[in-house]
């Protein structure tokens, strides 16, 4: 379906970063202008759909977009723009294209139709370069995969490719149920179907989870406890959003996985509460405690650590809470040992050292 919108807002038409390496983004918030430019130059539009508070979005800005090789490919093939999804022009994009998470990336043709789309940050520039090259492949991009889905292709690899590119798709459960109903019993424990289940077969009322419940021992034998735990964690996340009562009933399936998940949810609730009232000392204390428990016991990915540390760095002075600053520095230092290639952690460590008055 053709998706095209006009945005009548103030516009800037100066290209930024012209002298810098990396992706050069056009400063133009009139979407009609961007599409016209793409059509005139026979290029696709690449749109970074971000929010200013989004940690992974900031990571992309600092560590991915400045890459020289990535910039060379993007600048040759795309009209690149960055749209804040919480500004009026961005809110219209968010609604028109069903943006549900940040960062999201759209690749559009000159008529505003989706050619490719993807959600989430990557660790290395070459990972994102592969995504952008895929967007220009007419046989493998989202438009091609979507066509196969519409034609009735229900293979696990096709469905997973489609859902990888179409975060939050409303037909997720339907596609997975159809896949399970079509494949023979011998394929339900196949690697391809398992990978699809782990990522997207998380509805407790769906065919995938019901089959898992009746065959848990077989899954443990085929894929190991770590992968099975990851699947259950995804089921818990999906259920937590949809049905709190059902969520509590899942505790008996694995109490340790449930405890890990509860710590993350407690952290997220504390973060959300503090974000709404940053002058509230009790909410600040709750946030620090929830963060400490989450980091120390769950050992989360570096994106969580950087987000927490930046929140502390931005707000500790309000409460004269230098102890929290020292905690943030410790967490970042530990994360750097586990993820030495994360540039954002290195930058953040330097900022925290300066704030605490400590020397290297």
Major β-sheet strand ordering: 2-1-3-4
Overall mean confidence score, pLDDT: 91
Number of domains: 3
Give the fraction of residues assigned to helices: 55-70%
Class per helix and strand makeup = alpha+beta
Low-pLDDT windows of residues: 1-19
How many whole angstroms does the radius of gyration measure?
Answer: 22 Å
Strand segment count: 4
Shape: globular
SSE run: HEHHEHEEHHHHHHHHHHHHH
- Count the DSSP helices: 17
For the termini, the CA-CA separation is 56 Å
3D structure, described in words:
This protein has 360 residues and is an alpha+beta fold. It folds into 3 domains: 31-136, Glutaredoxin, CATH 3.40.30; 145-253, no CATH class; 271-356. It is 60% helix and 7% strand. Strands 2-1-3-4 form a 4-stranded mixed β-sheet, sandwiched between helices. The longest helix has 27 residues, at 216-242. The model is unreliable at 1-19 (pLDDT under 50).
Name the descriptors.
360 residues; alpha+beta; Glutaredoxin; 17 helices; 4 strands; 7% strand
Reconstruct the topology from this structure.
Layout: H1 31-40, E1 44-50, H2 55-64, H3 68-77, E2 78-84, H4 88-97, E3 104-108, E4 114-119, H5 125-135, H6 142-150, H7 156-165, H8 172-182, H9 191-200, H10 207-214, H11 216-242, H12 244-249, H13 255-276, H14 281-298, H15 302-315, H16 322-338, H17 343-356
Parallel strand pairs: 1-2
Antiparallel strand pairs: 1-3, 3-4
Helix pairs in contact: 3-5, 6-7, 7-9, 9-11, 13-14, 15-16, 15-17, 16-17
